[in-house]
């Protein structure tokens, strides 16, 4: 008889895969970014010794952490150069939109909450709610660091990769203020061990 927990996990993974497939119909970049971010999340979580169940949930959350961008105009997502304050305000709504989508699915775990907090910072300067410190799930803190590293080190639709060293310098700069220092240290270890690609990548 199949393990019921394993079967249930498979069903939720299939739901996540379906969401990704729909998003990929209109956005050729974001789902690839999410996949690469998810891979780094798993490596960091494994280094930190998280239980496999929590790692699997984090992986699914990372795979759809930007699902809310499906409602953001592609022209804005792909815009080169500086964006206006109004455009930035619109862009930030992707977090709440993603949470509102995911909370409609009856996940028996905090997947939607992880996504809701992936732009929150330890010092309360993040969005959309300005929560801080221990109010941010560890999985979200891992996702935040991974998201920053992948976003800077990979090619974007509007610019080439800035390089892994620039990405690592950025998380070092924010460590202990915005970013969890234990997560930053784990990420630095994973990259040093060759756990992620160190050059630009395209989806």
What are the key terms here?
203 residues, Hypothetical protein af1432, 0% strand, hydrolase, HD-GYP domain-containing protein, hydrolase activity, HD_GYP_dom
Oligomer: single chain
Largest sheet: none
CATH class category name? Mainly Alpha
Specify the structural class.
Answer: mainly alpha
How many structural domains can be distinguished in the coordinates? 1
Based on DSSP secondary structure assignment, what is the total number of beta strands? 0
C-alpha-based Rg, rounded:
16 Å
Q: Strand percentage, roughly?
A: under 5%
GO molecular function: hydrolase activity
Domain HD-GYP: 8-203
Protein name: HD-GYP domain-containing protein
Keywords: Hydrolase
Write the layout of secondary structure elements.
Layout: H1 4-24, H2 30-48, H3 52-63, H4 74-77, H5 85-102, H6 111-116, H7 138-153, H8 164-174, H9 181-192
Helix pairs in contact: 2-3, 2-7, 2-9, 7-8
EC number: 3.1.4.-
Protein name: HD-GYP domain-containing protein
GO molecular function, one term: hydrolase activity
What would you say this structure looks like, in words?
- This protein is mostly helical and 203 residues long.
- It has one domain: Orthogonal Bundle (Hypothetical protein af1432), CATH 1.10.3210.
- The protein is built from nine helices and no strands.
- Helix 7 (138-153) packs antiparallel against helix 8 (164-174).
- The longest helix has 21 residues, at 4-24.
- Its EC number is 3.1.4.-.
- Residues 8-203 form the HD-GYP domain.
């Amino acid at each position: 008889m199949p393990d019921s927990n394993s079967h249930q996990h498979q069903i939720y993974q299939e739901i996540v895969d379906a969401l990704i497939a729909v998003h990929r119909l209109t956005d050729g970049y974001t789902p690839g970014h999410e996949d690469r971010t998810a891979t780094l999340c798993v490596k960091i979580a494994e280094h930190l010794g998280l239980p496999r169940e929590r790692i699997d949930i984090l992986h699914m959350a990372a795979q759809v952490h930007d699902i809310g961008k499906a409602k953001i105009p592609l022209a804005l997502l792909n815009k080169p150069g500086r964006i206006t304050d109004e455009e930035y305000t619109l862009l930030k709504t992707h977090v709440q939109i993603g949470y509102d989508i995911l909370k409609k699915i009856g996940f028996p775990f905090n997947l939607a909450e992880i996504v809701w907090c992936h732009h929150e910072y330890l010092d309360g300067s993040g969005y959309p709610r300005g929560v801080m410190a221990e109010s941010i799930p560890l999985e979200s803190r891992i996702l935040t660091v991974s998201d920053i590293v992948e976003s800077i080190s990979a090619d974007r639709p509007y610019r080439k990769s800035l390089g892994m060293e620039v990405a690592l310098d950025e998380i070092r700069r924010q460590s202990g203020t915005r970013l969890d220092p234990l997560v930053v240290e784990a990420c630095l270890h994973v990259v040093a061990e060759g756990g992620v690609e160190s050059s630009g990548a395209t989806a």
